[in-house]
Structure formats: C-alpha cells, structure tokens
Amino acid sequence: MASGPDTTSASPSGQAPEEQEAASTVPGDAPGSGGDPRPDEARVSDEGREGSAGVPTAESADTGTPEPPGRPGRFARLGALARREALRTALAALSGCALGLAFPPYGLWPLSLVAVAAFALLTRGRTARQGAWLGLAFGWPFFTLLLKWLHVVGWDAVIGLAFLQGLFVAVLGAALAVTSRLPAWPLWGACLWVCEEFLRDRIPFGGFPWGRLAFANTGSPFTPLAALGGAPLVTFAVALTGGLLAAVAVGAWRLRTAPRESRTYATAGGALVLAAAVTAAGFAVPVPTKADDTVQIAVVQGNVQQPGMDFLGRPMKILNNHVEATLDLAKRVKAGKEKQPDLVIWPENASDLDPYKYPEAGKRIDQAVKAVGVPVLVGALVDHPKKEGYVENQGIVWDPKKGPGASYTKQHPVPFGEYVPFRDQLSKVITRLQRVPRDFYPGDHTGVLQTGPARLGDVICFEVAYDEIPRDTVNDGARALVVQTNNATYGETGQPEQQLAMSKLRSVEHGRAIVTAAPSGISAIVEPDGTVRERTEEFTQDVITGTLPLRDGRTLADRVGAAPEWTLAIVGVLSCAGAWILGRRARRTGERPGGTDGTTQQEARQEEQHQ
After folding, report:
1. At residue 507, what are phi and psi to the nearest 5 degrees?
2. How far apart are CA 511 and CA 551, in angstroms?
3. What's the rounded Cα separation, in Å, for the pair 298 and 444?
4. Does residue 390 contact residue 409 with C-beta atoms inside 8 Å?
5. Which letter does DSSP use for residue 565 in this model?
6. Phi/psi of residue 167, each to 5°?
7. What is the separation, in whole angstroms, between the first and last Cα of the chain?
8. Which residues does residue 395 pair with via DSSP β-bridges, in sequence order?
9. Would residue 534 show up in a list of annotated catalytic residues for this protein?
10. Of the candidates 127, 170, 107, the residue with the CA atom closest to the CA atom of residue 7
11. Minimal CA–CA distance to 213: which of 414, 502, 487?
C-alpha cells in the first residue's frame, strides 16, 4: 500500500484525548461512505491499534515488536482492512473505468466530470495512505482500459505500463485526501490534477502524457480554453468542475440531515453555479480561425500489408504503396479529375528503406515526386551519418527538381519502442526488446520546413502528445502543422482515434490547421477550430485532397507557454504543504484542522453531531 503523510497518530499510546475523540468520528465514515457502523468506542479500540490509515502500526508491523496478548494477528488485521475498504476500492476502480470511457474511441467526455467527482468524494476525509490506495485502485483500471491497444505488444506490457502510470494517480489520491480538509478543496484538487499530469509528462524517460483529462475533452465546452492556456488549462477546468460537482454532492448529503442549514444551501448552490460558469467559460473564448493564406494539398495513405508488429512486410512494399498512390494521383490531376496540389504529404515510415543508402528507394521516391510535379514531404528512416548503429526518424522535403532537401528529425523517440534504455541489461531479461534492433537518435531542432509555398511544422507521431514540441514549432514560424505518424502496429485498437483527438486539441491550442498523415490511417485534415474536415478509414489506400488554411497569428497559449502549467502545479504542491502544516498544528493543540470539506472547526463539530 502506498504511503504518504499521515494526519493522526499511528497508535493509541501516542494519542491525546482530543485526538482520540477526533478519531472516533473518521471524516470518511459519514453515512453511505462505507465506514464502520459500530459505536465510537469500539472503532477507536480497533482502528487506533491499526493506525490512523487503517494499516498495522509501525511498532507491530514494521519493527517486529511482540503484539499484545489477545490482539488479532497481522493477516487478520489486513483482512479486516480489506473488508472495510472493499466498497471504496470497488467504487474507485469503477470510477477509473468510467474515466477510460471518456476517451476515444468511446468519446463519452461527460464521464470525465463524473469520474473526477467520484474520485474526489472517495478520497474526501481519508488519510494519505488510504487516499494513495484509492488512487491506485482508480488509476490502474483507468490506464488498463485506456492503453489496451498496447496488447499488440503483450498484455503484460498493458498491465505493467498501466500500473506504472497508476502510481502517479496513487500520489494524486494521497494529495487529494490530505487537502480535502482545506477550505476551497475543489480548487486545490484541480491544481493537483495538473501537477500529476505535469509529472507524468516528464518522468520517467521523458514521460508519457497519454490519458490527460484535456485529451478526453477535445470536443467539449472546455476545448476552447486550450487557446488561452493549452492542455493544462483544459485539464484544470475539467478537474475543477468535477471537484465542484463533488462539493454539490456533499452539500446535498448534508441537507438530508440538516435541511434548514442555510449555510449548506449557500455552499452547495454556489458550487453548482461556479461549476456551470467554468463549463460555459469556453464559449466566451475566441478561437482564431481566419486564414492568412491557403495552399492546395494532397495526403497520401499508401496502406501496409498487415496490422501488428510485423506491419512492414517485405522491403520496399510500403514505399511502393505510396509511390503507386502518388502516381495515380498524378494521373487524375492530369486528367482533370483532381486539382493540382501545391504540395503532397506522405506519412511517417512511408519509405521503409533509407533512400540515401539504397538507390532503389531513392529512385522510386524521385519517380513519384517528378510525376506529381510538386514537393513531397516524405517520412523515412535514415541511418545516422556519424553514429554507427543509430537511426533517425525523419521528414524530408523532396523537390521534383532538386531532390531531397531540408529535413526534420524526431526529437522525442519513444522509450522501449524506438530506443531501449539500459539495453545491455534489459535485453537479456526481456528478450522481446531485441525486436528493437537499433536505437533512434533524437533531433535537436523544431520541424519548421519550407514545403513548396507553405512553411509547415513537422511533428512526428507521439510528439503531438507533448506540449512543448508543437508549441515550439508554432513559435518558430510554422503556419500549419503536420503530424507524420505510423499507427499500423496499433491499427483498429482505438489508438489512432486517441492520437487524432490530440491533433484536434492542438489545432485549437495553436490556432493552426493540422494534417495527420498515416500509412494505414487515420489520416485527416483538422481545421484550426478542431473540426475534422476529412479523414480516411483504417487499412485502406486513399488520398485526401483539399485546401489547407495557413495562419501567422499566435494564440495566448503560444505566448505564455508552460507558465500556466507550472503555476497550477506549484499551487497544488503548496496546498499539500499547507494541509500538512495545519495538520501538525492541529495535533499539537489537540484540535481538528477543519471539517471534511474545509469547514471551520465549529462547523465540523456540528457535522459530527448530525452524523
């Protein structure tokens, strides 16, 4: 069980009389919360021996000190703990699954509010350790459902990565529990959600930002807020609304026992009004969409031989698919069936051989580019020119007259997918890692590329999930963004839909049209307001043509950068520190730090009397 700062004494021997009185009415044991219905004296007797978090005390469980005669054994106490927490644990797991359904391919975004509210209620008034346990019970099922597309690699990978990500939510659960006694606790909870995503976005190995609340709300009233503060502000608004709904539920429960309590009416009513205001705030945000210029584009989806880990098939197969689709496009343009494009976009890994090293690959690309008569942005894997054994994931501007020119190298390779950390050690234990024969070498600059008449910003695959890469690309002058991606490994698993949702959010965040190009789908054109204008089906050969709007203006989110995220994350950390300080002060004075929803001590005592 995860640990965290506790707010009560670990054993009855160290409790002051006032602390014992407070312990007899555990904040989370309100009616309907799954608490122990026994008389206060019996609960203090048992729970005091187990510590304030309902776990064995340090003296008996950790140091091996002999237990008092007649006291239940350690496993018996753990069993009792499991029974007491079974209902909350089950509800936390159910809430985590509900959050998973808020994301594509299901896309039930209102469930993100329900899940956040439920999580806030489950951790309300609990100790840090109990909150951490509930956080893991919430986070592990959530990420298992969200990342089930990874089963192509193996279900052990799904369970393992989901558990790792769930540990971050366990820390979040502990923090929510600690701050739930503070005034304005929904506000601190929303900041803590941003803080949790801040950490997951960066550690370990550069982070894994999948599953951010913002990515479940790419078509909700909260989406326009991305233009002001990016994905972190959307997450904050969603979490704040969910926390406020939890506060409404707390007030409604209290009114059952104190129907004439005017303060409770005011608190619950104010929380409901504020939740509605935060939800509606997005409608007041102007989303810039007016184009400064346009270009005619074609997006080629050549398709692959088969989905899964072995999508590449035989050499040149994928490259030939894209060449043939481009040659067919050129024929239709010549016949007047299609408009002449100003540029053509191929996806990531469209060339499965290094066109610089293998002449046959370079000749096929050159044939297609000359046939269509305009520059083509080609995705290819290229051997590193200086570091033997390394490969670069590149987007190359291929001109019909000059041949290959400017290129962008992916800055953020995927750990264990495009490179293996601690390869020498881990590959001996996990033989599956040997399927990644070479490590990708990261690029060192943004992907702003002059592609024909358009200055495009290339972002490759998972890089669209990281805030800083698209933002830096726009700030460096990109007038539209291109996401070259290859989801053939995870085709028809829901992962392509999740990544397309990220493109929708980024388009609003940066006020840029986004082209997603994938060899097996989903390829799409997304307008600057997040609307998907055109898209392909998976595992079909197709070509999308259309007008791409180009913009020069920057959004407020581009200008302020990561400042909102840092600010909200720091506020979340400071709220935990404040709760810890108030808890220590309360233990010294023998008084409670406040009610379960941040009420005053007097109000907390009134609540206890009602209970």
Report:
1. -65, -40
2. 8
3. 28
4. no
5. H
6. -65, -35
7. 29
8. 379, 408
9. no
10. 127
11. 502
DSSP state of 467: S
- Say which residues have a Cβ less than 8 Å from residue 43's Cβ, sequence separation at least 6: 23, 24, 26, 29, 36
pLDDT over 90, % of the chain: 68
Buried b or exposed e, range 414-427, using 16+ CB within 10 angstroms = bebebbbeeeeeee
Catalytic site residue from 410, 504, 527, 538: 410
Give the global pTM.
0.84
Give the residue from 534, 557, 558, 559 showing the smallest Cα distance to 547.
Answer: 534
Q: How far apart are CA 478 and CA 468, in angstroms?
A: 14
Active site residue 402: no
Query: Which residue in 191, 170, 167 sits closest to 179, CA to CA?
Result: 191
Provide the sign of the torsion angle of the four alpha carbons 415, 421, 424, 429, taken in this order.
Answer: negative
Catalytic residue among 50, 261, 348, 463: 348
CA distance 570 to 1: 26
Q: Are 329 and 300 in contact (CB under 8 A)?
A: yes
Which one, of 222, 142, 224, 235, lies nearest residue 190 by Cα? 235
Residue written as token pair 């379960």: 596
Q: Among residues 191, 195, 461, 576, which one is catalytic? A: 461
Q: Residue with structure tokens 């659960």?
A: 173
For the stretch 503-552, pLDDT in tens is 999 999 999 999 999 999 899 999 999 999 999 999 999 999 999 999 99
Parallel, antiparallel, or unpaired: how do β-strands 524-526 and 532-535 relate?
A: antiparallel
For every residue of 222-270, DSSP letters joined together read TGGGHHHHHHHHHHHHHHHHHHHHHHHHHHHHHHHH-TT-HHHHHHHHH
Per-residue model confidence as pLDDT tens digits over 56-98: 333 343 444 455 555 677 778 767 767 888 999 999 999 999 9
Nearest to 408 by CA among 448, 376, 348: 448
Given CA atoms 405, 411, 414, 419 in this order, what sign does their dihedral have?
positive
Output the six-digit token pair for 166.
């769930």
3-state secondary structure 119-140: HHHHHCCCCHHHHHHHHHHHHH
Active site annotation includes 410: yes
**Burial letters 345-380, b for 16+ CB under 10 A, else e:** bbbbbbbbbbbeebeebbebbbebbbbbebbbbbbb
